[in-house]
Specification:
This protein is 57% helix and 15% strand. It has six helices and seven strands; from the N terminus they run E-E-H-H-H-H-E-H-E-E-H-E-E. The protein has helices at 13-78, 80-97, 103-131, 139-151, 171-190, 241-253, and strands spanning 3-4, 10-11, 157-162, 196-205, 218-226, 256-260, 267-274. The strands form two sheets. Strands 3-4-5-7-6 form a five-stranded mixed sheet. A two-stranded antiparallel sheet has the order 1-2. Helix 1 packs antiparallel against helix 3 (103-131), helix 2 runs antiparallel to helix 3 and helix 4 runs parallel beside helix 5. Mean pLDDT is 77; it is low at 1-7.
């Protein structure tokens, strides 16, 4: 059977067959597009859920580590800190009692007292550090607080050149930075006979700038430099406690660590690690 259109063309059965096939293809195409859209939405939702689960696991691990640090801090306070406090008190009595003894005995008694006092101070710092949380405070604020603490106990002049204002670190990393900086500053105050200490915090490119392609990653550079008497690096024993604290902290931070002697004198501690925005 044939139909005559207004144009005068005769519509045949083949035309109707072609139209039906075209309609089916169009419907199948729309169905496929809908399936693809649904799969894309499902994949995006799955990725979002996986990201949330990863963040939840990360937060759970961080909370577990924080709780473990607090538990260890409580153990330190209840055992080692109490014993060291008693040892400091007794060594102080020994030092006073040795005033009329020989110079050698006096020196030994004073050394025992000094070491006991230092051990107690470091233990208390570990306890306080285990409880420390900085929340949203940037690293520059953490360094400011540390400088303020040292300024109240020494006559040195401290300077912080903080060209990075908004760098945030997780508590565990900020704690390692604090240990390293605290140890370097303590050495300057106690042993270097320094009058000025400068901290500098800035970003540093890890390589030359490229005209095209991926650019070199930025690194965080933290330097601590004093104007003290300096020292001979060869004279530092590998098992030196303060050096070990800084090296171990740098390893846990994933940072490069170095101690150098500037040409003008003094000591410079250099710490650098790859920038990871948080």
């Amino acid at each position: 059977m044939m139909d005559r259109e207004e144009t005068g063309r005769v519509t045949t059965g083949d035309d109707w067959l072609w139209l039906g096939e075209s309609t089916a293809v169009a419907l199948e195409s729309r169905h496929a597009s809908a399936v693809i859209d649904a799969l894309s939405r499902g994949l995006a939702l799955h990725q979002q859920q996986q990201a949330r689960h990863a963040e939840d696991r990360k937060a759970a691990v961080a909370e577990a580590l924080k709780n473990e640090r607090r538990h260890l801090a409580a153990e330190l306070h209840d055992t080692l800190a109490q014993e060291l406090s008693y040892l400091q008190m007794q060594s102080a009595r020994l030092s006073r009692a040795a005033r009329h003894a020989s110079q050698e005995v006096q020196a030994l008694a004073e050394d025992v007292y000094t070491q006991a006092r230092r051990a107690l101070r470091q233990t208390r710092e570990l306890i306080n550090g285990a409880h420390a949380t900085w929340g949203d405070a940037p690293l520059a604020r953490v360094l400011d607080d540390l400088i303020e603490e040292f300024e109240t106990h020494s006559g040195m002049v401290f300077e912080l050149d903080k060209r990075i204002q908004s760098l945030h670190l997780p508590d565990a990393q900020a704690l390692q930075v604090m240990f390293i900086v605290r140890e370097a500053m303590t050495n300057s105050v106690r042993h270097a006979r320094a009058t000025h200490l400068r901290l500098q915090l800035l970003y540093q490119s890890s390589g030359p700038h490229q005209s095209s392609g991926p650019q070199p990653a930025e690194r965080v550079l933290l330097t601590i430099e004093d104007n003290g008497c300096g020292f001979d690096l060869a004279d530092i024993p590998p098992a030196h406690l303060g050096l070990g604290i800084m090296q171990d902290g740098a390893r846990q931070l994933g940072a490069d660590f170095a101690i150098t002697q500037p040409r003008q004198g003094g000591t410079r501690v250099i710490l650098s690690w790859e920038r990871h925005d948080t």
